[in-house]
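Regression check, 0O2 case 254:
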Amino acid sequence: MNEFETESGILLKKKQKDKKSEEFLQEKTVKKELIQKSETQENAGEQKEQESNLKEKLVDSEFSIKGQCAISLLLTKLDIINTVLLMNMHRNVIQMKTGRLKSYSSVCKKLQKKGLELDFDTAVERINDLIGVRAICAYVDDIYKVSELIERQKDIRIVKVKDYIKEPKKSGYQSLHLILEIAIAFQNGTQWIKIELQLRTAAMDYWANLDHQLRYKKGKKEAELIDEELRECAEVIGNLDQKMLEIRKKIDKI
Ligand code: 0O2
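Current build output:
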């Protein structure tokens, strides 16, 4: 009997111990979840703060004013280059040009695509085309003439050249990209502003605009087929540009 009482006592004690450790574990899990939740909330808060900081610094800001100045200056330089080339070649080498500041949403998308933080300094350092100018030239050799004259400017530094004409992208994209720094005199001295200049022919531009539309529809089944068709068109356009250049050179000799 005694033995029995002892055994049931032991069982009871074990049950109480198990319950206690179960309660302890539950309490620990709840605490862990609460900490994780508050950390997530903190991170979300920090991320929101970073995002609003990015927007504040990109849009209607000192950066955007300086960016607009860089665009105006580069567009004027391209005007002058066109005039100089017009005097020698008796035709407009640059047919059209535009400038833009990358929109806030495009900046966010690009940072996310690159796996980077939504942070202003990161954007300025890692995105080359926050400030961009595009010039459309008549012929492929005109693109390199313009590029050469840009490289000779004393207030322009060449940071990087990406020649997607000599080596088109997998998509078929062709253009010459010059990542530049352009000097702008502000009240507190000269500042070098990073700007991307995209040079392409009218045919390359025609192609790129359609391809750009398709990029927003990527992932859909039909888009894959169109992608292939566009790649083929890029080749046709490359050949056409070369043929037109050869014909123009023949005409120049007459
Ligand atoms: P959006 O919407 O036109 O502004 P990297 O320098 O290698 O880290 P990044 O900056 O993508 O990467 O350089 P890249 O490849 O030279 O592209 C810069 C810009 O060129 C793109 O900006 C496009 O404007 C254009 N571009 C590049 N590849 C293609 C392409 O395959 N098709 C078209 N249509 N345009 C292209 P965004 O910000 O990607 O796009």
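Comparison notes: The radius of gyration is 31 Å. The chain has seven helices and five strands. No diff flagged against the previous build.
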